[in-house]
Amino acid sequence: MKLKFLLPLGLIFFVFIGYMVLKPVSADFLKLKRQNLDYTILANCSVDYPKPLDIKFSYEVEVLRIFKKEGDRIKKGDLIIQLDDSDDRRNLTLASNNIVSLQKKIKNVKNVELPNLKEKEREAELSLKQAEIDLKRAKELYEAGGISKSDLEKIQNNYEIKLSQYNQIKNSIENYEVSGVLAELETQLESAKIEYENIKNRLLEKRIVSPFNGKILKINVQNGEKVAPSKVITTIIEATNWLLVMNVDQRELSFLKPDLKANVKFDSFPEEVFSAFVSYVCTQIDKEKGSCEVRLEIKDKKADMIKYGMSGYAEIYAKTFTNVMIIPKRFVNNNSVYIYKNGKAVLSNLNLRPVGEDKFITEDLNEGDIIIDLSKNMVNKKIKLRKEVRI
């Protein structure tokens, strides 16, 4: 009885196995045709320049008058805020007077004191020479017995006094010119000039003027307010085209070059498209990220909508491939694809050129060939075409 029961079961099993082996495999397919491929590069981006400029001081200041308001357009050199500069003006006058006083002292030393010393030096030199002559003659007379020893000593002492006087005057002149009064006065003058320039610059700082053509974003003070150190007084931004920074996979580098057109969408305005172009392509690769920095310059009438720091994504129109066979990445297995022939899967090795991360182009297949999306080890399997893939 058992044998009679097992035989039908075995027969059913083998029939099932045979059916599964011979059953066609369903697969999505793509019928190849020549077409144009507009290859674009997509990446996240953010507005990086121009960066708002915060104007603040490291010391306390007082607001005298505000000439502009938030949102005003400004030109380079426009006065935005005048701070109290009365102390600086007074200090600048004192510094200027100090310079004039030192210059007069130096002039007096050079034109009066030094000439007087040099005149005394010439007189002392003449006296020293005469004393030297007298001493030489006295020594000769002393040797001949013409004068006494005490007379010779008096003449000797007179010579030494003249020599000392001459050396003192000479040293005084050298000290005046190198390390004495004149040198000290000239050092003081240089310091006074530096102090004058520092005060002058501080005075100019009290006039907050625009360093560029731009716009006032924020004014955080009022007339008469005493502003604490490091508090931002006003924030301005330059009026120039916005620059966006994006990091692109290094595999896209061969497609990137300056002046390529791009479209940008920001998270803040998802329905708006802004025109841009590539203004910079990296000169080196980030090793850790494997990416390349690319900068886009916005050139769009709607640019006033953009704010510093906004984020979004950009699409760069990198290259157009004309009349090519395009194969999506899903159909490729190690440079091979399955071709549908006579109801079966035929594996074919191809020369493939990658275009971005998800497409290849080839010239090894013919228009009208059907490629199928199969996993490995499906050679000669019967195929049932399921769904046509659109590119």
Our count of domains comes out at 4
Strand numbers in spatial order across the main sheet: 2-11-14-13-12-15
Distance between the termini: 62 Å
What structural category arises from helix and sheet content? Answer: alpha+beta
Compute the average pLDDT.
88
Secondary structure tally, helices: 4
Multimerization state: single chain
Radius of gyration: 47 Å
* Bulk shape: elongated
SSE order, one letter for each helix or strand: HEEEEEEHHHEEEEEEEEEEEEEEE
Strand content: 25-35%
Fraction of residues in H or I helices: 25-40%
Characterize the biggest β-sheet: 6 strands, antiparallel, barrel
Are there runs of 5+ residues with pLDDT below 50, and where?
Answer: 11-21
Total DSSP E strands: 21
Describe the model:
With 391 residues, this protein is α+β, with helices and mostly antiparallel strands. The chain has four domains: 26-37 and 323-388, conserved putative lor/sdh protein from methanococcus maripaludis s2 fold; 40-49 and 239-320, Elongation Factor Tu (Ef-tu), domain 3 (Beta Barrel), CATH 2.40.30.170; 53-83 and 217-238; 87-203. Helices cover 35% and strands 34% of the residues. The chain contains four helices and 21 strands. The longest helix is centred in the N-terminal third of the chain and has 59 residues, at 86-144.
Topology:
Blueprint: H1 2-22, E1 25-31, E2 35-49, E3 53-55, E4 61-66, E5 73-74, E6 79-83, H2 86-144, H3 149-179, H4 181-205, E7 207-209, E8 214-219, E9 226-227, E10 234-238, E11 243-249, E12 261-266, E13 269-281, E14 291-298, E15 311-328, E16 336-341, E17 344-349, E18 353-355, E19 359-362, E20 370-372, E21 383-388
Parallel strand pairs: 1-21
Antiparallel strand pairs: 1-20, 2-11, 2-15, 3-10, 4-6, 4-9, 5-8, 6-7, 8-10, 11-14, 12-13, 12-15, 13-14, 15-19, 16-17, 16-20, 18-19
Helix pairs in contact: 2-3, 2-4, 3-4
